[in-house]
Structures are given as structure tokens and as C-alpha cells.
Known about the structure:
The chain is mainly alpha-helical and 156 residues long. It has helices at 9-39, 45-72, 81-87, 100-127, 131-153. It has one domain: Ferritin, core subunit, four-helix bundle (Ferritin, Up-down Bundle). Fe (ii) ion (FE2) binds at residues 37, 53.
Amino acid sequence: xxxxxGLSEKNRKTVxxxxxxxxxxxxxxxxxxxxxxxxxxxxxxxxxxSFFESQYEALDDILDDVAERMRALGAxxxxxxxxxxxxxxxxxxxxxxxxxxxxxxxxxxxxxxIIRNLRKYADLADDAEDSASEDFLVSLIEQHEKMAWMLRxxxx
Length: 156
Ligand SMILES: [Fe+2]
């Protein structure tokens, strides 16, 4: 059945394309954070292992919401490693870095890259008159900024 939610197909597709890009980056960051959880070593292993777990759990919720927002706009949600690898824009090597500080710094940079992208995507949703996606994307800025703060605090 044809969708009739007051948004043109063109605008829904524009926002969905941004969400697909975001989904790839959220998945990439989720896996990188799991990698940090798995591979971290050193005297702070216990707290860092748990800290990374709390962060990848938050990212799991976020990426699910992004995919389901795409579905609500009528777009299919990409769901293969190949599609994510092609679409991702962030550097996702954090889980393979040697040393906790380097892992944390890499994760922080990835969050900051996603935050910068989110600002553009929220403007794009605004231009497409999709206020619900704009609101959702702005809420993700806040969540990523909070996670970035927690990472940054480890480096000070
Ligand atoms: Fe685990």
C-alpha cells in the first residue's frame, strides 16, 4: 500500500540515504567498540572491558533505531557486512589498536566524525521537511556527545 504520511517519496529517499550512511558508521563503530572490549589489556583491564561493553550496548540500541527509522520511511535497511563496508565513512580500526589509550582515542575520533555527520544529516532532514527524522538525529548527537565525553575523560 502506498505511504501517505505527508512526506514526498523524493524527500523520504533523501533522508533514507543519509540514514543508510549513518547505519553503516554506527555498525562499524559498534564492531570497533566490541573489538576494544575483546582486545584491551593492561592494569585497567576490568573497568575498561566493562566500560567498552556499556558503550557497545548503547550503540546496539542506536543502530537498531536507525535501521527501524529507515523502515518507517519505507526504505529497506541494509543488513550485510559487504553493504556496511562499502558505505562506512569512519575509521573503524580502534579494536585492533595496541594499547588502551590508542583504542580510546580512535573510538573518540570515530564518535566525533559521526557527530559531525549527524549535524549535516539533521539539516538535511530539516530541508526535507522530515521533522521526526530531524528530531531523532538531533537526539543521536546528544547520545554520541555523551559517549565521546566518557571516552575523552579517560585521556585527561
Ligand atoms: Fe563480552
